Amino acid sequence: MRKPDHLWMVLLCIFLMIAACAQAVTFTEDGGMIVNGDGTDDFSVSEGVDGSYEGTSMVTPPPEEEGEKGPGPTFVKSEEMEFFLVLSDGSMEYVELLQPGSVYSQVKLHGEKVYVPTGLLMYETGEVPDDMRYAMINAQKNGYATMHAKDSTRSGVINRIMTNRIALVLNVGSKYTRVWVDDCVGYILTSSLVFLPGSNVSSTLATMSYKGRTNSKATINIHMNGKNRSRILDDVICGTQLTVFSVTEDGWTEIEANGWHGWVLSDYVTYGTEAELASQP
Prior knowledge:
Elements: H1 5-22, E1 25-27, E2 33-35, E3 58-60, E4 75-76, E5 83-86, E6 92-99, E7 104-109, E8 112-117, E9 121-122, E10 134-137, E11 144-148, E12 157-162, E13 166-171, E14 176-181, E15 184-189, E16 193-196, E17 204-208, E18 219-223, E19 232-237, E20 241-247, E21 252-257, E22 260-265, E23 269-271, H2 274-278
Antiparallel strand pairs: 1-2, 2-3, 3-4, 5-6, 5-9, 6-7, 7-8, 10-13, 10-16, 11-12, 13-14, 14-15, 17-20, 17-23, 18-19, 20-21, 21-22
């Protein structure tokens, strides 16, 4: 004998009530839902959902577009880090890290954006060898690497980091490495990283330009590698400072800029910082 449909509805309501009692749920003003949180946390958005979130604040945002089925992606709050700059007198000043680099990084100091040697940045880290303190995301097949809250694929997904992004290494493990990248702290497969030599390698400062003009409004593509038709990672405006590592005979320059380690066509590189170039007659 077939049970009435309304009986299934009653059973479903009872199940949902039990689930609600097990976890504290707060609905945000925009329709999102926070589990085990009070709705005041600042969450970092990323795509995808993975694994168990037991004991961790998480948020499920509403659909991005009207008519979209189901909730949006679920993501876990990232840890926060503080950065300090060592000054010439040995004292330290709090800074906001804007764009990391293995040799030079852009920070905000006293409200101004400046480039400083990355070796002068101090932050909490484990025992990391000097030649493994900086890394590049190496995910050429998928285009991104998944960052987890813990060193396990069963832990929550914090973010998905595009290939060739520069990461600061906090702890190195045989399978997972703890990193800071894109203002997020989490674990990425060690096999998805290429460690950069940092200040131990020869480099030169340069500026992005168009037809030799660093003050042009043009934007220049950064590529994943020095090959024609290679993946475009980002575009940056002329006047952006570059760290140059190498130049190929077929017209490509290996650079770091805006948190990327990649390649640009050599025609768009003018050597010297923007301040140095501006002071020339």
